[in-house]
Amino acid sequence: MTANDEAPAISVPDHRVMLAALRLATRAPSVHNTQPWRWVFDGTRLHLYTDADRLLPSTDPHGRQLVISCGAVLHHARTAFADQGWHTDTVRVPDRQRPDHLAVIEFRPWTDPPEGIHTRARVIDRRRTDRLPMLEPQGFAGLLPRLRMLTSPHEVELDVLDDSARPRLAAASEQIGALRRQDLLYQTELEWWAGHSETLEGVPASALVSDAEFARVGVGRAFPPAPRSMRRARLDDRARLVLLGTDGDSVTRWLRTGEALSAVLLECTAAGLATCALTHVTELPTTRGLLAGLVPRPATPQVLLRVGTAPDDADMVPPTPRRPVTDVFTVTGSR
Questions:
Q1: Which of 296, 322, 257 lies closest to 75 in space, CA to CA?
Q2: Dihedral of CA 151/202/211/180: which sign?
Q3: How do strand 37-41 and strand 329-331 relate by DSSP bridges?
Q4: By CB neighbour count within 10 A (0-12 exposed, 13-18 middle, 19+ buried), where does 9 fall?
Q5: Which ranges constitute the DSSP H helices of the chain?
Q6: What is the mean pLDDT of residues 107-126?
Q7: d(Cα 18, Cα 15) in Å, to the nearest integer?
Q8: By three-state DSSP, how is residue 46 classified?
């Protein structure tokens, strides 16, 4: 380079766009709404890190669900940036010596992202975790090819479980609850993160279900029950059970699972469907083995989902709280 040459200009989103995109990204789901992510912008690249202080030692001792949660926030962020006209070239787990450093994003302008990206970005604020009973998902058969197309680039397999699997999973879910009730550390974690409506993290009381409502769902984590309530009183759950699985276990596969999960949740929301991730079923080896036997190909189960249609009534789930972007985003350099 001669003295008269100039270095090429580095194009990145301005601060306003960065904050807007990351605010949407923080709407991503996470285990117990722990929001276990940190973003760092070095003036050129955006880095995603785990927040080890938000690891659940009893629920998630290996950090698998923590990383899946961070994969969801990564996909939410990339969707939000694309909606604002920015392509995100992403390197996942860039330093094997730093497993907390999950991704590095470099930016370039993207003037014509696919319409599907805009659609998914627009529903980020509408997506909820719905723990109440659901109707059968309307139009699900037509949506399935699209969902599989979205998970395939992440090397994640999507399988719909047969209805005959529900009784076995309900029994397994009940057994998990019985085992967990004897685990003091698990119960302490659950009570710390669930049922407190005055905080900006955790599962608020408004997102919990009563014992009677829970009984009509059958497959779900046994959170502290909400006060006596009979929402959707005449409805037994008819949601379809969808399993996301990978070829083995690794930090990269967990991250990819979270990205695929985000894509599925947003696409279902755009189609007018309700969703609920059932992460408790994949926390213990016995139930992961049960799930592996319910799909036609060898796979490591990562996340089970309920997908259904919520009745058009007044029982819509309110948004769960999120920490402000300034709590999870740091700028360390400038252009």
A1: 257
A2: positive
A3: parallel
A4: exposed
A5: 15-25, 64-83, 115-122, 140-151, 166-181, 184-193, 211-215, 251-270, 285-292, 325-328
A6: 96
A7: 5
A8: strand
pLDDT in tens, 91-107: 999 998 898 999 999 99
Measured CA distances, 113 to 20, 84, 92, 153 (Å): 18, 9, 21, 17
Measure the CA–CA gap between 319 and 212, rounded to whole angstroms.
22
Residue with tokens 């669900």: 65
How far CA 16 is from CA of 23, 45, 187, 236, 259, in Å, comes to: 11, 16, 41, 45, 24
Q: Please check whether residue 121 is in contact with residue 88, taking contact to mean a CB–CB distance below 8 angstroms.
A: no
Residue corresponding to tokens 């502290």: 224
Is 217:132 a contact under the CB 8 Å cutoff?
A: yes
pLDDT digits (tens, 9 = 90+) for 12-62: 999 999 999 999 999 999 999 999 999 999 999 999 999 999 999 999 999
The percentage of the chain sitting over the pLDDT mark of 70, rounded to a whole number, equals 96
pLDDT in tens, 201-223: 999 998 999 999 999 999 999 99
Nearest-5° Cα angle at 43, 41 to 47: 30
pLDDT tens profile 39-48: 999 999 999 9
pTM for this structure? 0.94
